[in-house]
């Protein structure tokens, strides 16, 4: 497998099309809607990560977003992970992509942060992500028992309070 990191500001129209084709496999929106969402929600230094097979075909995608959180009353920089998707589910490509990103976060001493639906909790916890209990969260954007917050590489830091007020990613 090969991995390509592309800063949002450097993304070509062809790369954007390829990303939207992958996303469309998972989320039933038009290519135009996917493009509009990406253009509206990602900043110029956010990173698109494409995973390619041996023939260099794009088979999986996620984005890394620079975020600020309040963790135990202290502002911290974290990497938000969003739009984790593959062209075919059940082939193990999502696990390969996430294991690669986990290593990337550790090597760069970054903390990871993501939101997911209940149906994806087992996937993320199986590869080392930790669920943050709802009672420790403050998110002005949404309050839902259907969306869960997970962290990675927070080392042994105990979470007593976590606040995020940025955009969803």
Q: What would you say this structure looks like, in words?
A:
The chain is an alpha+beta fold and 169 residues long. It has a single domain, classed as 3-Layer(aba) Sandwich (Aminopeptidase). It is built from four helices and nine strands, in the order E-H-H-E-E-E-H-E-H-E-E-E-E. Strands 1, 2, 3, 4, 5, 6, 7, 8 and 9 form a nine-stranded mixed beta sheet that branches. A hairpin with a 5-residue loop joins strand 2 (47-52) and strand 3. Helix 1 crosses helix 2. It starts with a strand and ends in a 6-residue tail after the last strand. InterPro entries: Acyl_CoA_acyltransferase. One of its GO terms (molecular function) is transferase activity. This is GNAT family N-acetyltransferase. Keywords: Transferase.
Supply the key terms:
169 residues, GNAT family N-acetyltransferase, 27% helix, alpha+beta, Acyl_CoA_acyltransferase, nine-stranded mixed β-sheet, Aminopeptidase, 4 helices
Question: Care to give the gist of this entry?
Answer:
27% of the residues lie in helices and 34% in strands.
Q: In sequence order, what are the helices and strands, one letter per element?
A: EHHEEEHEHEEEE
CATH architecture: 3-Layer(aba) Sandwich
Number of domains: 1
Percentage of helical residues?
25-40%
Task: Please state the overall shape, judged from the principal axes of the Cα atoms.
Answer: globular
Sequence stretches where pLDDT stays below 50 over 5 or more residues: none
Total beta strands? 9
Our estimate of the beta-strand percent is 25-35%
Described by strand count, sense and barrel closure, the largest sheet is:
9 strands, mixed
**CATH topological fold name:** Aminopeptidase
Oligomer: single chain
The overall average pLDDT, rounded, is 93
Intertermini distance = 25 Å
The CATH class label is Alpha Beta
């Amino acid at each position: 497998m090969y991995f390509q990191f592309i800063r949002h500001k450097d993304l070509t129209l062809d790369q954007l099309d390829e990303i939207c084709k992958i996303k469309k496999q998972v989320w039933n929106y038009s290519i135009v809607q996917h493009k509009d969402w990406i253009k509206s929600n990602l900043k110029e230094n956010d990173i698109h990560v494409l995973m390619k097979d041996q023939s260099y075909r794009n088979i999986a995608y996620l984005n890394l977003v620079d975020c600020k959180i309040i963790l135990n009353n202290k502002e911290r920089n974290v990497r938000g992970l969003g739009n984790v998707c593959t062209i075919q589910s059940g082939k193990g490509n999502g696990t390969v992509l996430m294991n690669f990103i986990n290593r990337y976060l550790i090597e760069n001493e970054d903390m990871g942060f993501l939101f997911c639906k209940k149906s994806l909790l087992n996937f993320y916890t199986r590869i080392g992500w930790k669920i943050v209990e709802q009672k420790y969260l403050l998110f002005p954007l949404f309050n839902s028992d259907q969306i869960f917050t997970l962290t990675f590489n927070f080392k042994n830091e105990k979470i007593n309070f976590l606040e995020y007020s940025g955009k969803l990613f």
